[in-house]
Write a structure and sequence with these properties.
Layout: E1 3-5, E2 7-14, H1 17-25, E3 38-42, H2 50-60, E4 66-70, E5 76-80, E6 85-92, H3 105-123, E7 129-134, E8 143-149, H4 166-179, E9 182-184, H5 204-216, H6 227-239, H7 246-256, E10 258-263, E11 269-274, E12 292-294, H8 295-298, H9 304-337, H10 344-353, E13 356-361, E14 364-371, E15 378-383, H11 384-387, H12 393-418, H13 431-439, H14 466-484, H15 492-500, H16 510-535
Parallel strand pairs: 1-9
Antiparallel strand pairs: 2-6, 3-7, 4-5, 6-8, 7-8, 10-11, 11-12, 13-14, 14-15
Length: 536
């Protein structure tokens, strides 16, 4: 029994073989991975130098003339005086009967062999030709780009273009497949038989090949419609993380070249339109009825439920990232407030105790920490300028200066402590005291039972990880909130002012908090010194 294969072919001439050769072999802008998975030449053609070989052959036969043409946008371009090459695209289905798997290297090899055989059938024995097999196209199906020199290297005769007219090319292609033991099939499930994740139209491969030709020709003329291109654009939009509801999905889809409309009384229907470029115009042309496809015709993966599921996923991601950023910011702020952070080097050490990495690119700081909240642990990075100006390299200098002063005082008080003065640890992170003072003078005498000291800075031991630090900071803030309540009556004027600003008091700058704490400690130190003097 013959092996089934689903394949289509299209062809077009070009007066710019150099541009075509570059298109089929060179990586696209921003492309990840290889442009092609296999390349071959026939009749002495070498893929790496194919364009030079073809150009030399045209020169030999005096058919390498050029002409200047005016483009639709008013510009000018240089092209060949004669047709320089012919471009044949052979596309093989990736789904359904007779398909080849773009993830399977054995199918790459099979597809490449079919491309080489087709090149021999069309080019004959005396024309240079290359075959490049790719899987990076709009739909990811395996396809061959065949470039055939228009000049016979033995006789100098030009290629008979009737051989690549569509009807004739299809006959040659199907006859070749039959000779190789394949049964050419283009069978699709009858409409309405099964509601699959994705449905395929009968003309999908052919319209995709036409779109590939348009791309390869430098986007000359009006962009052709392709349902495969439309589906690919929708898939790319659904993979994005920028939308969290239907309205923002519509905006994201338009950026990808898709117009989206809800329809039906229940609003559960969705209609997509492929936005196409006009001839010589970067603007989208007016949508025509043939550009439209209902989601039910494309498959389950394109219906409203799929959009809602993706929006839900993105909303969850946004919430997780906000929580992640808040935790990261808390850890960075605690590190900046740490008395040991007196320069970039010491600051990095304090951050590392909290499992936070600081990297510098030029004068821009970025913070990274391992995020283990998802299915896979990964390092996440945030630019300092996006978190807060205080956390940038420039903003941190203020903290370093404050901490240098605090460190000097800490040393002096350490000497006092050794002399029996009982001076308090200046390096304590007194979060509750700070919040209580901001709250309007809560009872500070009882704070000792609620405050948490920093790690002992004399030996650097006891560093807290980011999760533990955040848990303690959260507990401190809950205690501070509890301490605020008896003083709410005395803050009525301030509360009214906050309501006028939207009900949320502005957050006090971290540097102001550290300065205030340092000033309070200086004042207490001074009082202790005065008290000791009176006792003498």
């Amino acid at each position: 029994m013959a092996e089934q294969i689903a394949a289509v072919v299209v062809a077009s001439p070009t007066r710019n073989s150099a541009r075509l050769s570059t298109y089929v072999s060179a990586p696209k802008k921003g492309q990840k991975g290889e442009r092609f998975v296999a390349a071959s030449g026939i009749n002495g053609c070498i893929p790496e130098v194919a364009e030079k070989q073809m150009r030399d052959n045209r020169k030999r036969w005096g058919k390498n003339g050029e002409r200047v043409v005016e483009l639709p946008n008013g510009g000018k371009a240089v092209e060949g005086e004669y047709v320089q090459a012919y471009h044949v695209i052979q596309s093989l289905a990736r789904d359904g009967v007779g398909s080849l798997d773009p993830e399977n290297p054995e199918d790459w090899e099979k597809a490449h062999g079919l491309g080489v055989d087709l090149a021999r059938e069309v080019a004959g024995k005396n024309r240079l030709a290359t075959v490049h097999t790719q899987i990076d196209g709009t739909t990811g199906c395996i396809h061959n780009h065949i470039v055939i020199d228009s000049i016979d290297k033995s006789t100098g005769r030009s290629f008979d273009s009737s051989r690549v007219k569509h009807a004739e090319l299809v006959k040659v292609h199907d006859r070749m497949l039959a000779g190789l033991g394949y049964e050419q099939v283009n069978r699709y499930a009858p409409p309405g038989v099964a509601k699959g994740a994705e449905k395929t139209e009968k003309s999908e491969l052919r319209t995709l090949a036409k779109h590939e030709l348009w791309e390869a020709s430098g986007r000359e003329g009006e962009e052709p419609f392709s349902v495969a291109v439309l589906k690919r654009r929708i898939r790319r939009t659904l993979e994005e993380e920028t939308f969290t509801d239907f309205e923002s999905f519509v905006d994201a889809a338009r950026e990808q070249g898709v117009d989206v409309q809800q329809r039906g009384q229940s609003g559960r229907g969705v209609t997509y339109a492929m936005l196409r470029r006009g001839a010589g115009d970067e603007e989208w042309r007016e949508i025509s009825p043939s550009d439209l496809r209902r989601s039910s015709k494309l498959g389950r993966d394109f219906e409203l439920g799929a959009i809602e599921k993706a929006a839900e996923r993105n909303a969850d991601l946004v919430a997780r990232r906000e929580q992640f950023d808040a935790q990261l910011r808390d850890g960075i702020e605690a590190s900046l407030a740490d008395i040991r952070s007196v320069d970039e080097g010491s600051y990095r050490g304090v951050l590392e105790e909290k499992r936070i990495v600081l990297e510098r690119e030029s004068d821009e700081w970025s913070y990274g920490v391992m995020d283990e909240s998802g299915p896979q642990a990964r390092m996440r990075w945030r630019k300092a300028s996006l978190l807060s100006n205080e956390l940038t390299q420039e903003g941190a200098q203020e903290f370093f200066e404050i901490n240098k002063g605090r460190s000097a005082d800490h040393g002096r008080l350490g000497q006092d402590r050794s002399a029996g003065t009982g001076a308090r640890d200046f390096g304590a992170v007194d979060v509750i005291e700070r919040d209580q003072r901001d709250a309007g003078g809560a009872d500070l005498d009882g704070r000792a039972s609620r405050r948490v000291a920093e790690p002992d800075h004399r030996d650097g031991a006891g560093a807290e990880d980011l999760e533990g630090l955040n848990a303690k900071l959260s507990e401190h803030r809950r205690c501070a909130e509890h301490a605020r309540r008896p003083h709410d009556d005395g803050r009525a004027d301030r509360g009214n002012s906050d309501q006028q600003q939207g009900g949320k008091a502005p957050r006090r700058k971290l540097s102001e908090q550290v300065r205030a704490r340092s000033a309070r400690d200086d004042e207490r130190s001074s009082r202790r010194d005065e008290g000791r003097g009176l006792g003498d």
